[in-house]
Amino acid sequence: MNTDVLIIGAGPGGIYSAYELVKLRPDLKIAVFDAGHRLEQRRCPIDGKKIKSCINCASCSIMNGFGGAGAFSDGKYNITNDFGGTLYQYIGREKALELMNYVDEINMARGGEGTKLYSTAGSTFKKICMQNGLQLLDASVRHLGTDKNYIVLGNLYNELKDKVEFHFDTPIRELQVNEDGTFRGIYDGGTVDAACCIASVGRSGSKWMEKVCEDLKIPTKSNRVDIGVRVELPAVIFSDITDKLYESKIVYRTKKFEDNVRTFCMNPNGIVVDENTNGIVTVNGHSFEDPEKKTENTNFALLVAKHFSEPFHDSNGYGESIARLSNMLGGGVIVQRFGDLERGRRSTQSRIDEGLVRPTLHATPGDLSLVLPKRILDGIIEMIYALDKIAPGTANDDTLLYGVEVKFYNMEVLLNEHLETSYRNLYVIGDGSGVTHSLSHASASGVYVARRIAEEEES
Q: Model-level pTM?
């Protein structure tokens, strides 16, 4: 088949690329290929009763399909240049914020209306953090919740399905450059040729993107990996913070090793979930806008960023090896009480059952000190005591730690200011580029590239 624009990946970057192209150039033929299912068919078989852990589906419905890994996320759009990626380094700070706000407007018009936009601007909590050796990053945060995020995505799909040719459960196995400078995507049973190609494969497509760059000799550089745990505790402990800010990105520099530890993906009254990335089961968190789906707990990640220099380049491989060790010992995700960790003993089901925090994820009681490197674990423990100063009760014995949580960042693809590779009209966007690390940045990168293509086609 032939098309004008080939979009590989139906995550946020791919969706907003298609949306903007349809809006600006409805005459263009657009084809979107994704390894996962259409939105309404995405179902994780884990129900907590009959199926309690990952069964390694052929295509992970949590990570792949329309909406990408963000479809069942907490639906947080962080409108900021302070975290979530380095898109601003390519397109400028003002343009990046303008596009993130534009995406927010689209979401509000398609089911997100009524959700709250939180902001850290002028927050007295920023001063309290500084007084206790912590740094609160600035951001405006739109929280859709997993439920409303799903509605927004459903409305976007309904708007696009008759204007864009979607191919689900159809991964592009290989990407080639034709002699005339056009692109060929090879999938099981056929090929697709296109004048323009947008690769938006997300974090789950990291190995695919790495292979494409290797085959086409596109320069890349190693990125970082974030390794840590997901903390679950009674929601009242963090309520003073979450009621005002919802998502607070707090950074702490450890005294022992001077490593940066940060909070990530805070889910007030949410649930802890597991997810499958390239066959490895890690932990994550969700929360909902619907009051009936709220729980008595809040969860968030504590992550230590590790950057590697010569001669080691495989930061994701390092993170994967730690996650595989956790899977080996626990058969999936491990959970441990903070008090047990401090006492140097593994948690047992009876001690967890007797605790004050009721876990929202069925996980294997164990010992995280047998999984996480000492330097990373020491940093996490330091951070928990630092947070205890601003949210007393964080360091309680019954606070639960789930491991491991790993945030894989794709190697950074060498791109120009148009997010274009060394091949003209081959764009790499979203988290698969290594440039963005969030829903808002990935979506904004999709809009940016679509506008570039529309301008080029018109000229």
A: 0.81
